[in-house]
Amino acid sequence: MSTRTLPLLFINLGGEMLYILDQRLRAQNIPADKAKKVMNDIITTMFNKNFLEELFKPQELYSKKALRTVFDRLAHASIMRLNQASMDKLYDLMTMAFKYQVLLCPRPKDILLVSFNHMDAIRDFVKDTPSILSQVDETNKQLREIYTALSVGEFQLIRQTLLIFFQDMHIRVSIFLKDKVQNSNGRFVLPTSGPVPYGTQTPGLIRMFSCVGEEVKRLQFQGGGNYNASLREGSFEMYGDRVIKLGTNMYSVSRPVETHMSGTSKNSSQHTKVNTTPNPLAKEELNMLARLMGGLEVQKTTNIDSGFRVNLFATDEEEEEAFISRPDDLSYEVLNIQATKDKQTNAELAKIMGEFGEAGETTPSSSSKGDDLLAMMDGL
Amino acid sequence: MAKMYHKEKSIQIKSSASALYNNLGVLRIAPRCLTYFTVVHANVVNMVSASWDGLNYSHRQLQSKEGSMATSSSLIMQAAWCVLPSRDLLVLTSQKGIQMYESDGSIMVYWHALDTPETPTAKAVFARGIAAVRENYICVGVSSGSVLVFDVPSKGSNITLSEVLEEHKEAITDMASECSGSLECIADLVSADDSGLLCMWKSGDDFQLLNKIPGFDTSCSSVKLWKGTVIAGYGTGQIRLYEGVTGILHAEVNAHARWIYSLDIAPFTGLLLSAAEDSWVRVWHLTLTPETNSVEIEHMYNECITDTQICGAKFCDGDGYAFAVTGYDLSEIIRYTQV
């Protein structure tokens, strides 16, 4: 649907990822200089000029699988490593957080304010590093230029496109369950009280007019719910008060990223449905993905000793347990590509995918050489 | 408030509803004591045929396959039944084009491709807004603002694009034809767009523009036309009633706290159904007094579908005796009938 959706999806998911990593780096007592390096490397990669150029081109959304591949790549852009179970958990938390924000944002246009909240926080992460800061500011400028010009209808289309992307994802997240904004079945709680969106009147009034436009009758009705007047509109400027809180950092020392297992929907009946129908877009999508990720600079970990692993669970045992017990239908099956056709594209993709070798994925042996990309997708 | 409706057994559907305007289709087949329902899920249309005794449900899923081409599968924007005097057709609109099926979804009788650019452009391309008009027309809106008029023969697949109406500058959101069956009404069709603009049309060999009713900085997401009165639902949660031909505003209702997704009218009784992202379904009653040229609206009933952003709501009959609702991420159609 909307061809303007991908940049918002990427920036907001990326923002959530940074919140979580920041919190985990602290929780695991990673030395400050290393933690700083991880955050800076990831943010530098996220806002790479060539990468963003591809990202901002009008295009359809990628499949969940393809996007997950992009974020796997991004999470490993520095000296930090995550194994499969932690990466799964990280991605679950990111996606459910942004789904919540998209669902709850009062007006479709407020998705932009949610994005600005993420951008503001990212600016703050790199405020001491001018070179990265200017990259982030450049993106901020681009966001404003493209999106503030869109109509309300176009924003609604973006919102509907995002909701289709997140459809049927009902992973339970501890912090949401604790805050009572998510039900035990994974559905989010939608309030029927509080301020109405900016530009909306509280329900309850009927006005009738004569042929010449005079108000002739005014009736109140009981509409249920307990709404009140809207807050002022948030700022769409470069800096300013966004008013809405969706998209700000919900983690802190006193509200850590939950690391115990109940967060994932191990026993939930409503799992993410994996699209099992073969996707004819695969080839087209692979090419786009290769182009996009070609813009992601590969950070060479020259000194292997400086690398470290971050765990999204309390202990390694829990992580292992999560990996084994994760239901098949929740598996993201990260793209594993041995490209063969377009030499250049494939070299790039192979390089990208090579980065994940240590996660222990196996490569499909059937796609060794000369095969069509489509045929290879079947083996994934 | 007296309890006007009570909840019936829900109908399960094969995949959940997407957040799209007017995402519920209902067709009543009285001779066979059946009701058909359609709900769009991404690139699939869920179709259920339900017997009135509640004992039999049969399911069918329609894919958005584009004609005979083996191209990529596109997202569907809307599915609606078009009831013409001679035949009923199920119309699907997507990113790639328009598909028309026999009413039971068994055979695709017509496919119209949209002009889609080779590389995606900033403006998305899709069709949305479906209405059957008079004897033989089916009108479909397009994201460019065009309204396509198809001439449909009483049988067979010789459907032709007879006219393209170019009055809207923004994407069409919804369309509706006069539903009272009265031939006295001058306007046959209303089209609405993302800017809130409403266009009134008289059908014929050449469709005639009767009036344009300007918007007010918000989308009109759902529209109905009843006895010459336009009922429009907006992104601000407001419902407005206009006299179609003159554009006179009869009433303005602060109806919902969030974006309205669906309106429906029961033509025999004047009951109006409204549903929105705020989880509320409301029933209203419209009274027309031709002598004084006045339209009144009164609130009748509320129902909250907890934690659900409603995307489709329709009456199941012409009296408004029963209605059905569906919402984003919901794999069921919830039904209510009058107490």
From TrEMBL, chain A:
<feature type="compositionally biased region" description="Polar residues">
    <location>
        <begin position="261"/>
        <end position="278"/>
    </location>
</feature>
<dbReference type="InterPro" id="IPR019332">
    <property type="entry name" value="OSCP1"/>
</dbReference>
<feature type="region of interest" description="Disordered">
    <location>
        <begin position="259"/>
        <end position="278"/>
    </location>
</feature>
<dbReference type="Pfam" id="PF10188">
    <property type="entry name" value="Oscp1"/>
</dbReference>
<protein>
    <submittedName>
        <fullName>Protein OSCP1</fullName>
    </submittedName>
</protein>
<dbReference type="GO" id="GO:0005886">
    <property type="term" value="C:plasma membrane"/>
</dbReference>
<dbReference type="GO" id="GO:0005737">
    <property type="term" value="C:cytoplasm"/>
</dbReference>
UniProtKB/TrEMBL annotation, chain B:
<dbReference type="InterPro" id="IPR015943">
    <property type="entry name" value="WD40/YVTN_repeat-like_dom_sf"/>
</dbReference>
<protein>
    <submittedName>
        <fullName>WD repeat-containing protein 54</fullName>
    </submittedName>
</protein>
<dbReference type="InterPro" id="IPR001680">
    <property type="entry name" value="WD40_rpt"/>
</dbReference>
<dbReference type="Pfam" id="PF21031">
    <property type="entry name" value="WDR54"/>
</dbReference>
<keyword id="KW-0853">WD repeat</keyword>
<feature type="repeat" description="WD">
    <location>
        <begin position="253"/>
        <end position="294"/>
    </location>
</feature>
<dbReference type="InterPro" id="IPR036322">
    <property type="entry name" value="WD40_repeat_dom_sf"/>
</dbReference>
<feature type="domain" description="WD repeat-containing protein 54 beta-propeller">
    <location>
        <begin position="4"/>
        <end position="339"/>
    </location>
</feature>
<dbReference type="InterPro" id="IPR049546">
    <property type="entry name" value="WDR54_beta_prop"/>
</dbReference>
